[in-house]
Amino acid sequence: MNTVRTQPDPGNAIMRFLKKRIAVYALLIAISIAVFFLFPYDLGFLTRIIIMMIFVLSLDLILGFAGVATLGHAALYGTGAYMAGLFAVHISASPIVGLGVGALSGAVIAFISALILMRAHGLTLLMLTIAIAEVLKEIANKAQTLTGGADGLSGIVMAPIFGQIEFDFVGQTGYWYSFALLMIVLFFLHIITDSPFGLGLRGIKQSTARMRAIGAPVYWRLVAAYTVSGAIAGIAGALSAQITELVSLNVYDFSLSAEIVIMLILGGAGRLYGALLGTAVFLIVHHTAASVDPFNWLFIIGGLVLGVIFFLPGGLLSFPKKLGWVTTWFSKQPEETPR
Amino acid sequence: MSAGLEVKNLHKSFGGITVANNINIQLKPGARTALIGPNGAGKTTFANLLTGILQPDSGQILLDGIDIRALGQAGRVKAGIAKTFQITTLFPEMSVRENLRLPILEREGYGAKWFGKSQVNYAADDEIETLLDDFQLTKYADVTVGQLAYGQQRLVEMALTLALKPNILILDEPAAGVPTSDSHLITDAIERLSPDLSVLIIEHDMKLVFRVANSIVVLVNGAILMEGTPEEISRDQRVRDVYLGERHE
Amino acid sequence: MSIIFNILIDGISYGMILFMIAVGLSVTMGLMKVINLAHGGFALLGGAFTHWLTVQAELSFLPAVAIAILGVVIIAILMEFSLFRRIYEFGELEQVLATIGIAFLIIASVNYWLGSTLLAIKFPEYLSGSINLGFRTLPVHRVFVILIGIVVVVALYILIERTRFGVNLRAAVDNRDMAASLGIDTARIYAITFGLGAGLAAFGGILGAELLPIEAYYPLRYMVLFLIVVAVGGMGSILGSFLAAISLGILDTAARYLMPDFSTIIFFSAMMLIFIIRPHGLLGKS
Prior knowledge:
heterotrimer; A: 0% strand; B: alpha/beta; Rossmann fold
């Protein structure tokens, strides 16, 4: 009965990991270089896409993998943005330390809110996520002397990265700086989602009752996942503060929380590449459509969302599969095919 | 102190309805005890009291002489009590292999490890292969569980539960919903269980019960009506009246 | 004294509006187990139709309201048949997104039709004055809203408790499979309930236009507010929605009068507190 199989060499784990991902990483780097040269005047917009990708990746961990529906992820992003912004204005202009501050504050606020959130379900959970973001927004609004209130936090000036690379006016530094962070975050999330912890998160999504029955502390796992997600969202927020050199109350907007959920579902939740694809498609369509007419944009996005939900439940990433291109990269990895 | 699981004077009521009334049961190592009784007799409630989903109002649950009532669900799993669900509760979008990997990782305390498919996974691989073999699931190892036939899913459920290496195994209606043509798979699997394991089988299917159990407890309205060997039970007029009668005649 | 009186009058009339808009949402969410973020769209459509009928077609108020509500009910039932029926079967997240998508489409349509400016409703003379009670004067509109609110509550009570439809509806909310197996036509109950809820939302939207101004973004702007009423009251509970709407209405009004700087924080903190104490809302069941 015993099937023949080869015992993989444990020392080669890193090599196998890289082998599996290297092609995609190379592709992403190639795209980033191509885009950099093709659209030299749109670097600001491209950087925004990259920052949002990091933000949506953070959402994917908690929503796509662990299955926790949230409409308040902006709470974590916004806190990272404000804290990194305040840090830059008052303490140090170092971008790297600023990112650390953003990550830490995102993680802290996520941890505290997770203690409440992860006991709730369904509508109550959704309402609580929204409420937390609204309360934070109002606090930022009222703490005018510190945050600038409705005028926004300004006066952020960044020192060169590692004391060497200056931020330039065209945004080339910002672009590569953000892209480097995106790759680091993606790499980190690949490790997490491949790990026992990541498998456990998918377990919680698919059957919480079963996870409990195999002795897993579901609540604390979710708190941990939300905290990690908060750190990454905080990094995205900090990046946005550093690159735009401004933080406004919009960072806590409900519409931001809702839009990133749409981006994630559009691309395909529970698969990190889906987060990247969905963000890019959403923002590019938005950029072109909204500049023509903001309300027609709502027709397009409304239709797009309904179309995906009704006809393409796995998101755009499942489209090649629907067409039968099973040999594409993305569908080759069975553990990344969630629904 | 006595080994195995011992339940003393267990009591539980919801509102005014008593669902567990002074239950006393002992499961020695190697026991094959069946818990039978009509619908609503409180069988699943009793199982939930053992696994910690519900807390009893009074009474004791002793595992190797130690009261485990204070332990939550996770704690009891670690203490060695595992249960299959009446309705298959698996990870439907994972492969059979992944379904078996998760409990092994949790059992070994690697569940929160956030990096690396480390050594433990290779150790787990061997264990998974053995389980697949034991339950004749090898050829389905990489099939998504949600796509398996229900009978196979029941087997995965048992294999997954055994992957926790329990001392006490509770099978809640293991054959429910399995087509008759496949029910031998379940019976065979139960018969192949390690002789050291204490097994409590909650079941309606009398053929299965009489085949695998060496002791039967009859539960009616939350209380034990009688307890005995299969022969004693099948001879008892009260049992025939309340239970066997309504099922088989 | 006078300020407490004002808070009560404004708070209760605000609460009545919230109740009228949210009750249909609560019942449909409890009944179909669907999270619907597009419900405010029906209030917007009611307001938009009334705006067009009273301002542009110069129809008088009452017939305009009747036509507007009827129009919304028809649209809602058509949408129930074509869209929502499939949405019921989705997972939670897909429901959230699909209904947000529908809200977007409603917003875009209203904007396409009437633009993104404020859509004023011409209330009749007899609703704009004030009543002199001798010791104090009251705005007629507020009194009217409160009276209508009471009528709606009583009518709903009779409908739910005293009619065959109500019995079936309650059975279906409790356990829809059981209700279906008893031969209750649940699909029809869904459609009727959905239509009724939308009609009430339209009515609430029209009457509340002074408090929650009608404009294209209405469904998104007030979505959270309506959902909070439902969640605090407990999904599927009419009485819960009523209690939640009135108390949130009074709380919000009081906070605005007394501590305007912190009204939002107070409002959301109160809500979070309720959820920590009662995770399924005031009268919700687990």
